UniProtKB/TrEMBL annotation:
UniProt keyword Transmembrane helix present: yes
UniProt keyword terms in alphabetical order: Hydrolase, Membrane, Metal-binding, Metalloprotease, Protease, Transmembrane, Transmembrane helix, Zinc
Protein name, entry field: Zn-dependent protease with chaperone function
The keyword Metal-binding appears for this protein: yes
Taxonomy, superkingdom: Bacteria
The family this protein is said to belong to: Belongs to the peptidase M48 family.
A Pfam family reported for this protein in Swiss-Prot or TrEMBL: Peptidase_M48
Domain Peptidase M48 residue range list: 113-191
Residues that span the membrane, as ranges: 84-109, 280-299
GO molecular function, one term: metal ion binding
Cofactor(s) named in the record: Zn(2+)
InterPro entries named in the record: Beta-lactam_resp_regulator, Peptidase_M48
GO biological-process terms attached to the record: proteolysis
Amino acid sequence: MITAAALSALAAACALGAWRFTTARWTSRAPRLAIALWQSLGVTWGLASIGALLAYAVTPYDRGVIHGLAAFARGRKPDATWDLWHALAMIAGLTLLAVLVAVLVTAGVQTLRARRRHRLVLSLIAREEPGIPGVRVLDHPGAAAYCVPGLRSHVVVSSGTLALLSHDELTAVLAHESAHVRERHDLVLLPFGALRRALPWSKVVRDAQAQVELLVEMAADDRARRYCSPRRLATALLRFGTAGAVPTPSGMLGVAQSQVMARVDRLIKPRPELSRSTRYGLVALSVTLTTSAPFLWALPF
């Protein structure tokens, strides 16, 4: 019963923390740390919520979550009465686990299929431009720039983009898209999109997904700043915004048009970085959150 109470409190703390985190103002100063904290909150909430239900379900075994589930699976007789409420908790916990796994797997499979189809289309209609090696060019008048993540990744731009941007601006955009590919931001976004499918009614989940999408763009902006002028990248973003960029295909990562001015303002007028002690504290918080739920699952009582 102690483990069930602790996991319930942890799940509630994660939900409250996520709600408060959606309005945090420091995240733009350290987007990668903010992404890590969002991931920790999401994983911990899922494990704590499932664990709280299962911990209550196996309370009659008095062996903790993992050992209690093992005893239940082997058909051992519990030490105390196993009544209807324990059975309902077991069903609810396993159902929540199945739903979260199912939506994650479904989202992953759909994304992989979309990318496979898009790679086939690119092999038929895209061309290579001698001046920008390693980039596929689509003959389309609209402004488009995106990447196809995966083992066979591609960075794709349209002919409209080549006409719209200067050489320096194009370099900035390509560096941004390459950052998405190198840092596998698609894998960062996948669980949040899956959680949105599982809990479409939750405003916290919607806000969390929107903030992580923005943080991923900011992280790619930071990576691109190593290879180009921040002002050039900001100008490119403004050009895309005013030109009416073509929507990014499903399953890809592109030049997002959401909250462009926040990103432009951040590039032109960067705020001071977080102090070292604050960064270490956020890392410690993320690690503590990530390990807390598995630790409680493993407790033998």
